[in-house]
Every structure is written in structure tokens, then in C-alpha cells.
Design a protein that fits this description.
By secondary structure, the protein is an alpha/beta fold. It is built from eight helices and nine strands. A hairpin with a 4-residue loop joins strand 8 and strand 9.
Length: 286
């Protein structure tokens, strides 16, 4: 399934309960949006989880579907609640209580990109914001819910692996002195959105590739894992944050010299995570 705003790559035969998703790697910028923005074509891309969809592109080859955003995060943030509307950037939105994400300009319709750079010179009409949510946010989440329900029906459980990348500097001041700096941060809302054994298995997969892995600090998981992680119902969800300096030149948003080797490593990670979703699958299918 392909739409202007996202794509689902399905395996020929679904053999894993895992659903891979990349909500922030979209890079198809509508012309009207670019005209509205005051940012140059490179700056407006600074919020992308660039190339994350490429790193895990082999997921369907191993029996797991992959949901990938085409619409960019700066246009509409798929990892936010549709109600997280920012009155500082959208007209006719009451300025009531706001959460830290909205306060920092990162609501469902973002006000800024990375490093706090404003996207617009003023506000956008509420109708424009609502249209983006209706056209992009709603269909994406309907598709994700369908994938999760399908996995639960076929395998007795669904395991969402929500893929992201983080700026290298996001860990500045977070890592304790003398402690190794994490390459990967797994977020499960401190054990609330996925069974501990599943998180431990995914953590082991990354560690076996030589990566330093942390849990929940500084990223415990945002809207997607909170919404879809219901372990008591057989729906598990975890957020994976990857230090993008391991594969990306952030200044040019292009692959760095380690990209090819890193992509191979993520290919091996993809296979093993998909395998986790195969454990007990035959019994569940029976």
C-alpha cells in the first residue's frame, strides 16, 4: 500500500508478529508547505530521522511489514496526539494548558525544527492544520492499528518497533561521568508498553552488534508507544532511538563514511528482531 503520505511494505508471507514503523523519516515536502515556510530547503529537513527507513528496509524480506512515512515531521508529527495543537502556530486554538512538547514548539503541527528554528513567520489557519491531520495523521494511524490487529490475530501478539534517530548531542549532560555513551536508547515507558522479556531480547540484539544500549533515558517513548503498547492485550510497543552520527552527516543530511557498514549491521538487527516475532508463532497460529 502506497499513499502520498506513507507506504506499507508488506512481506510476501507474513511470518513475524513484529511491525516495523518509521514515522519521522519522511522527506516528501509539499510545494505549498515549502512556500509557507521561511526555512531554506536544508534547514527544514533538520527534524527528519533521515534514512532510518533505508536502514531497516529489508524487514519485509524477513516476514515483517514496514510502515514508513513519506510526509515529513515538520509538516505533521505522527508521533504526537492529534489534539496536541499549538496556539502559537495555529490560528483559533485556545491557549489553555500545554504540555512540554507543545511548549517547545513540537506539537502535532510543529512550530520549529531542530535547534528551535521557526518554520513559519506567523500562524497558519486552523483549517490547514486540520486538513493535514485528516489527510496524513488519521490514515497513518489507521494503517498502523490495522497492522497491529493483524499481527495479534495471526500470531497471538503484536510487537511494534517504532524507529527513530537522535542527534548525537541529545545525550550531552545526560550520561554520567565515566559511563559509556549509548548508541541506542530503547523506550518502553519504563516497562509499561512492552513485556520486559521482549525489550530484553531487542536490547541483546543491539548489544551483540557491539552497540551500547540504554533504556528510557533520555527517551522513554512518546505518543506512538503510549497509544499502541498494551501488553495485557497482547500489543507490545517500544521506541528505538539511534545516534544518527553513527551513519549520518547531520550538516548535509547525507550518509557519512560509516553508512554502508552501519546499514549492514542494521540489516542483521532487522533479521533478529523479526525472528523474535516468530517465536511461538506456529503455536499461536494453530
Amino acid at each position: 500500500m502506497t499513499t502520498p503520505y506513507f507506504e506499507i511494505k508488506q512481506p510476501r508471507k507474513r511470518t513475524s508478529a513484529v511491525v516495523f514503523a518509521s514515522p519521522h523519516s519522511g522527506r516528501v515536502y509539499p510545494e505549498a508547505f515549502l512556500r509557507e515556510s521561511i526555512l531554506d530547503p536544508l534547514s527544514i529537513r533538520m527534524s527528519e530521522d533521515a534514512l532510518v527507513d533505508k536502514l531497516f528496509a529489508t524487514a519485509p524480506d524477513h516476514g515483517a511489514p514496514f510502515l514508513m512515512a513519506h510526509a515529513p515531521r515538520a509538516y505533521v508529527d505522527l508521533n504526537r496526539d492529534a489534539d496536541e495543537l499549538d496556539s502559537a502556530v495555529i490560528d483559533d486554538v485556545p491557549s489553555g494548558s500545554i504540555n512540554p512538547r507543545i511548549a517547545s514548539g513540537l506539537g502535532v503541527i510543529p512550530r520549529v525544527v531542530a535547534q528551535g528554528r521557526p518554520i513559519y513567520s506567523g500562524k497558519i489557519p486552523r483549517l490547514v492544520a486540520q486538513r493535514r491531520i485528516a489527510d496524513v495523521w488519521g490514515p497513518y494511524h489507521n494503517a498502523l492499528m490495522d497492522l497491529m490487529r493483524g499481527a495479534r490475530a495471526d500470531f497471538g501478539r503484536a510487537i511494534l518497533v517504532d524507529l527513530h534517530s537522535m542527534p548525537h548531542e541529545a545525550l550531552d549532560g545526560v550520561v554520567k561521568k565515566g559511563a559509556p555513551r549509548p548508541d541506542i536508547v530503547i523506550g518502553d515507558r519504563f516497562g509499561r508498553t512492552a513485556a520486559p522479556d521482549l525489550v530484553a531480547q531487542v536490547e541483546e540484539v543491539f548489544r551483540d552488534e557491539g552497540f551500547v544500549v540504554a533504556r528510557n533515558t533520555p527517551f522513554a517513548g512518546a505518543y506512538v508507544v503510549q497509544k499502541y503498547g498494551r501488553p495485557s492485550r497482547g500489543h507490545h510497543a517500544m521506541q528505538i532511538e539511534i545516534d544518527r552520527s553513527l551513519y549520518l552527516n547531520s550538516e548535509t543530511i547525507s550518509p557519512n563514511e560509516n553508512y554502508v557498514a552501519f546499514k549492514r549491521a542494521m540489516g542483521r538487527v532487522t533479521v533478529r528482531i523479526a525472528d523474535i516475532g516468530r517465536e511461538g508463532a506456529a503455536l499461536a497460529a494453530e
